[in-house]
Design brief:
190 residues, mainly alpha, 3 domains, three-stranded antiparallel sheet, 3 strands, 9% strand
Length: 190
C-alpha cells in the first residue's frame, strides 16, 4: 500500500476517545475509569484496572475494589472503548464527524420541540446550518484522507531533589522523587 494514498493512522489521545460515541455510552463513573485506565497505560505501558477503579469508585475494601475493577474492565461497553483505543478503528476526523452529527440531531430535536413563532427557532436554524457546514467539511476531509494532528498531551513537571515547590500556600523542598520526577518526600521550608 502506498503511504501517500493511505496514511498511517495516528494514535488516539484521551481527548479523542472522550469524544467518541463508544465513550459517551458509558456511565459517568465508567468514563472516569476509562480515562484513568488509558492514561495509566499511556504513562506506564501497563493496563491496571485496580488503579483505575480506585480513581473512579469509592470502595474501602480492596477485595471489593478488585472485583469491581474486573467487572468494569470486562464490561462490553468498556471493551468497546479499550478496543477503539488499541486498534485505532476510527480516525480523529470520524470521531469529530460523529460528534457533529450528534449535535445536529440535538438541534433538530430542540427545533421540533420549539414553537413556530418562537425566538429560539431562528437561532437553532443558524446553529444547524453551521453544524451542517462543519459536517460537510469533515466528510470532504475524510474522503480526501486528510489526517488531523492531535494537540500534544500536557507533560507533567519533573522535579529534582532540592527543588522548592508550593502546595496549599506552603513551600516545600523536595527530598526524594520517583522515576517520573514527582516528589515522594519533601520538607517544609521555614
Amino acid at each position: 500500500m502506498d503511504s501517500l494514498t493511505n496514511p498511517l493512522p495516528q494514535k488516539l489521545t484521551c481527548s479523542d476517545i472522550a469524544k467518541s460515541a463508544e465513550f459517551l455510552r458509558l456511565s459517568k463513573r465508567m468514563r472516569n475509569f476509562a480515562l484513568s485506565y488509558i492514561q495509566h497505560y499511556l504513562g506506564t505501558g501497563e493496563w491496571d484496572a485496580v488503579r483505575a477503579a480506585r480513581e473512579a469508585y469509592t470502595h474501602a475494601n480492596l477485595n471489593v475494589l478488585r472485583v469491581a475493577a474486573h467487572r468494569v474492565s470486562h464490561h462490553p461497553k468498556m471493551l468497546e472503548v479499550v478496543d477503539l483505543f488499541r486498534r485505532n478503528t476510527k480516525t480523529r476526523l470520524e470521531i469529530q464527524l460523529e460528534a457533529t452529527e450528534r449535535e445536529i440531531r440535538d438541534i433538530e430535536r430542540h427545533l421540533a420541540a420549539s414553537d413556530a413563532g418562537s425566538t429560539a427557532a431562528p437561532k437553532l436554524l443558524s446553529q444547524r446550518r453551521e453544524a451542517w457546514d462543519r459536517r460537510d467539511a469533515l466528510s470532504e476531509q475524510i474522503a480526501k484522507g486528510v489526517q488531523v494532528t492531535a494537540p500534544p498531551e500536557p507533560v507533567p513537571h519533573r522535579y529534582n531533589v532540592g527543588d522548592i515547590f508550593t502546595q496549599d500556600g506552603v513551600q516545600y523542598q523536595t527530598t526524594s522523587v520517583n522515576a517520573d520526577g514527582q516528589p515522594l518526600t519533601a520538607d517544609e521550608v521555614k
